[in-house]
Amino acid sequence: MTRKQLNESVEYLIEKGFDKPEIGVVLGTGLGKLAEEIENPIEAFYNHIPYFPLATVEFHAGKLIFGILEGKKVVVMQGRFHLYEGYDLVDVTYPIRVMQRLGIKKLFISNAAGAINLNFKKGDIMLIEDHINLQGGSPLAFKNVGEFGNRFTDMSEPYDLEMRQKLLKIAKNKNITLRQGIYVSVVGPQLETKAEYRMLKILGADAVGMSTVPEVIVANHLNLPVVAISVLTDECDPDQLQAVNIAEIIEIAATAEPKMITLFRELIKNV
User: Fold this and answer.
1) Which residues does the UniProt record annotate as the domain Nucleoside phosphorylase (predicted)?
2) What mean pLDDT is predicted for residues 30-51?
3) What mean pLDDT is predicted for residues 27-42?
């Protein structure tokens, strides 16, 4: 990754009409409906943006959308990238760097995840307080990283405390149950074994997924305040483990999605 590549990506989007967005949003698996609520949308498909990776997962749309939401300029990633698609961590997080160069001052992230904490149920939503990186690498581990920020990025409070507190207040006012917990990110795409779920519980994880952590690391590298929500789509009980059903996961994500949209819309109003 070079400054020249980033500049070309950004220039293409500015020419399309992406005009100084204030907030960036990353939409996870089965969580694309927020994009439909954007006013005066301008779309840019990933395969048209210079140096952008391509979304290869069938339920990820693969486009950036710019427009107005709750009176604020937003840029929304409808579809994200994962290590399991064959990309490296620099590719996976490239869009975060592009959105920051476009002008965003806050980043909201969503994902679909499995509940390891058995007090949480499928259909619940969880505010991520902290994370564990089990993806075996870092999106900051490349030669010229120092050109883009501090190589040794502090991660003592990776998820913005002020925005987290606002989300908890919004959830209370809207009568939405918002869990709080630790998210662990693994490579995938295979789901975990019973032994792996037991290990992740011992490590202190409340939910497991295959995304988000690289994007959060890069947001911190860029001094970009970030907040993240997991929609819990399955229960990872190693003593009663059921075979995974991707169609059911997408269905549960869609059922819980309105709660996530309410939280993000209200937060956009309040930041």
Assistant:
1) 23-269
2) 90
3) 88
Cα–Cα distance measured from residue 28 to residue 126, given in angstroms and rounded to the nearest whole number? 14
Are 223 and 149 in contact, with CB atoms under 8 Å apart? yes
Q: Is the pTM for the entire model greater than 0.70? A: yes
Mind giving me the DSSP string for 90-144?
HHHHHHHHHHHHHT-SEEEEEEEEEE-STTS-TT-EEEEEEEEE-SSS-TT-STT
Residue ranges with strand state E in the chain? 23-27, 39-45, 63-69, 72-78, 106-115, 125-133, 178-185, 207-209, 226-235
pLDDT digits (tens, 9 = 90+) for 69-110: 999 999 999 988 999 999 999 999 999 999 999 999 999 999
Cα Rg of the chain, angstroms: 18
Structure tokens that stand for 121 in this block: 């149920």
Question: DSSP character for 50?
Answer: T
> Mind listing the domains of the chain with CATH numbers?
3-270 (3.40.50.1580)
User: Helix, strand, or coil here: 183?
Assistant: strand
pLDDT digits (tens, 9 = 90+) for 208-240: 999 999 999 999 999 999 999 999 999 999 999
